[in-house]
């Protein structure tokens, strides 16, 4: 991650974007490099500006947030998308993660949590709202996960240390925090995480959380 996190704001309300920009401009290490009012414009500016993080609403005219997420994934974009929405996580968190979001935050929590959420997503970690891990756990308890035998086969490909990194990532710890717990450097943690994603054939960090829940590495929280 670069020393300055480049951010693209995507929301169809100009006044809201202005308020978020003002909030972020006061933060050291964060830079708003552009704004977009809908998904089409967001995709175009993501190509041109190459932001590190896209802060995006779900409800927009024409191309909405879900379609934008899917198209960015299809294009192989490296931008990490933090969903910032008025919709509650009970209904929208899981679909957003499935579409490729790296984090989910309610607009009502933006004043307190937006900056930390952006920094976490920029590091490559998944940002979940309060209760988010439980929602994921409930999904797999209800039988919507892949067959356990397939999950167990994939888990067997990981070393004991890779399992530790995977579990701690799913619990929401950053690379630095994981490094301190395991007495290794944050860079080594990132190397392990990259290796894990390759072994499990995963594209997004949020998928690591879902796999940890399915495999039993992450219990009730």
Give helix and strand order, one letter per element, not per position: EHEHEHEHEHHHHHHH
Tell me the radius of gyration. Answer: 17 Å
CATH classification class of the largest domain: Alpha Beta
Overall mean confidence score, pLDDT = 85
Which percent bin holds the helix content?
40-55%
Strand content: 5-15%
- Which fold does the CATH topology of the largest domain refer to? Rossmann fold
CATH superfamily of the largest domain: Response regulator
Shape from CA axes?
A: globular
Descriptive notes:
It is a single chain. The longest helix is centred in the last third of the chain and has 15 residues. α1 links the parallel β1 and β2. The chain has a five-stranded parallel beta sheet with strand order 2-1-3-4-5, sandwiched between helices. The chain contains eleven helices and five strands. It is globular and about 50 Å long. α2 runs parallel beside α3, α6 crosses α11 and α8 packs across α11. It has two domains: 126 residues, Response regulator (Rossmann fold), CATH 3.40.50.2300; 81 residues, Winged helix-like DNA-binding domain superfamily/Winged helix DNA-binding domain (Arc Repressor Mutant, subunit A, Orthogonal Bundle), CATH 1.10.10. It has 221 residues and is an alpha/beta fold.
